[in-house]
């Protein structure tokens, strides 16, 4: 049996060294899989013929770089350790490694390959924390196959990994543990000699509660289980009460890694007019200690991006909530954020304003602009207005036929109102306005 250790600062370990994991190590470390049959919940990645399996078996056509993407505690580091069999294993944590560390590892890998014929697997944990320069430093080594790169991230690689590295890598998505996989992990931990060695039991209710509060995070399951086992030594059985005492409080599924997922779900729930789901995600952010100013800013953006002219009061409510939270603070500010959340979630929706400004900016950025029509220019300058400017207030409807857009954009309509909420009235008025303006064309 080949055993592994791992070093968060960077380590040099070949899988053939047979370094034993201390019996005093945390339960999660002692139960790291020794082979693929012990990997739970990722069957879609480790079956015969998959790229990960080909890399593990050293078969031709294996990718030179793999990015393991998934939530915490699903086995990204364990898979990297298994992939290191037959290779020299090095690890860096993107939390505290810099470009200098990356280059040193690459030069060391170059030496090992040239003088000893040993291939290096470089594992980078939390690679999304690397900036562009740090990720760029990896490219030559991946391109020249000096290293086999395995990187782990909890954030969407499309947003956190630079395109050149992403194009040279195979992205594999790991799933949170299902209830079935979580139950298997608990049973293994209770019985395995490297685990609790059949010295303690867990009653069914406590097992269900442990699975629930762990939210598919295998590391969390084992951490909670070990704590509960320590608190249950006298009785020999882990109960719901013992589990509650050991854990003290279920940790909200929200940290820096879930930050973007939760705020995304919050926005999308309001956009979908599901007020109850929106309040749930708001509560998760509040209980996790999210900055209330951040939540308030997202509400203000949402009010214009997704509600817009369908209910312009949404922007006023969101802005007032942001100002009120700044004055009142937390925890009372939670009520103000909830007020604005309910208003925005139940308001009629329109993204017409968002589309309008996006299309206008696209035209400007592509050079489709043209000259300002002469009557609209500043008449106070020597080369200002030339032509007659018709003052709209002098006309019965307050609108007069005239050219306002530059020549290349005559007839262009960016703002296309919906018939939702108050925007229906705007749509009707705009139809008449455009009819009058069109009289100049």
Automatic annotation (TrEMBL):
It holds the Pfam family MgsA_C. This is Unannotated protein. Keywords: ATP-binding, Nucleotide-binding. Gene3D superfamilies: 1.10.8.60, 1.20.272.10, DNA polymerase III clamp loader subunits, C-terminal domain, P-loop containing nucleotide triphosphate hydrolases. GO terms for molecular function: ATP binding; DNA binding; enzyme activator activity; four-way junction helicase activity; single-stranded DNA helicase activity. Residues 62-177 form the AAA+ ATPase domain. It comes from freshwater metagenome. InterPro entries: AAA+_ATPase (IPR003593), AAA_assoc_2 (IPR032423), AAA_ATPase_RarA/MGS1/WRNIP1 (IPR051314), DNA_pol3_clamp-load_cplx_C (IPR008921), MgsA_C (IPR021886), P-loop_NTPase (IPR027417), RuvB-like_N (IPR008824). One of its GO terms (biological process) is DNA-templated DNA replication.
